[in-house]
Amino acid sequence: MVKLDTDFVSRYGSKLPLISHTCSRLVGLISCLKESIDHMNTDYKPFADYTTRIIDLLKGEIDEKNQKDYSDDPVYDLYDLLLTGSLSDATRTWLTDYLGDRGIKRWVKLGRQHFEGSRKTMFYDMIPALQHLLVHLSSLQGLSKWEETTDLLGLDSNKINTSIETASTFLKACYKTMMTLNEEQKNFESVMEWLDAIVQEVMTDEKPTIQIKTQNIIQFLLSIFNKSGARQKNGDLQVLFDSLSSDLVGIFQRIKDKMKSQMSSESVAVLAEDTEGMLYWEAKLYGEFGILAVSSREKIELVKFDIDSLKSNKTILQGVGNPQSLLASLMEDGSNIIVLASYEREARLALLRLGEESTNSILEGNAAMVKSITLPEEEGTVATYITNNSKRQTCCLLDSTRKRYIVLEY
């Protein structure tokens, strides 16, 4: 146990909650950005996978029919169909046997999920997060302008300025990406209308009257050929996120180092040395003293220590009856503990009063039994874990599978 001098809290004064709140908000905002990018990738993957798979089917048809007069890339076959209206046997088979009306509807559904989902994520999550992040960084920047607060808080003005520049670039990239998504969705929908019209013509021999938006279709086919689009944009956003996250880590580290430099730890005491086999530990403070309870399979160690000097004395309570595990939880008064002893076919829960020599069925040592209860096994499992609310005198027991529980009052 280490006793720290926290006089720096009074030196920070009102700046401590300000700097703590600001850093906490920045951590939350950077987590929001990470989740948003992951969500965009999740929306994009089904669309990208389906697009790749359906184009690969066209390539397979071209290879099978040996139609490689100009290129074996299926995109060129679609170019030829767009510019000349010539429908090859491979493309006809692809349109009727693989794509069809259902394939186009699924493609449209996945495209809408990607384009609209990514746009909503950026508009409702990423852009507001970056705007709030810039506000908090500007607050830190203002504090860094004052010599006394810069020295006190450990603020690095250069790092903060770099973070603001990165966040501003990130924000601009989000706006640009939203505009690009709008353009790509328009191109994608033009391709779907065109393919749907061709499918209808092939299946019904009726030529639908639609306006073919050649430029939009070419742009979408180019994005497939170059394997560009959302994957590249999301990658660019990820690079900006990594850079911003690294900048903020540097700012936080400087602040933490400054705080640590103003802490002193003159008093150090070892309260528990042998932690092998330890299952659980718990510590509570009771005015002038504190208690550390260390639970293991065979025993419970209770270490009572003075808060000022950290001098301590140890009491060992040995398990009775070869328990599989022992767990102890401290009470609010500091004179009682509640113990869960788990055996092969039952569990025993006991409330013990410390400091009184007594013999009981759970522990040997300086602790007297106040009350106890035996819990037999149920469906082959026994109570193994305990969580305790000593203020309400209530505990919850879980079995070894952590699927069955029981709540008890004592």
From TrEMBL:
Keyword Cell cycle: yes
GO biological process terms, semicolon-separated: anaphase-promoting complex-dependent catabolic process; cell division; protein K11-linked ubiquitination
Keywords recorded for this protein, A-Z: Cell cycle, Cell division, Mitosis, Ubl conjugation pathway
InterPro entries for this protein: APC4, APC4_long_dom
Source organism (scientific name): Brettanomyces naardenensis
Domain Anaphase-promoting complex subunit 4 long: 1-204
Recorded GO CC terms: anaphase-promoting complex; nuclear periphery
Superkingdom classification of source: Eukaryota
Name of the protein: Anaphase-promoting complex subunit 4
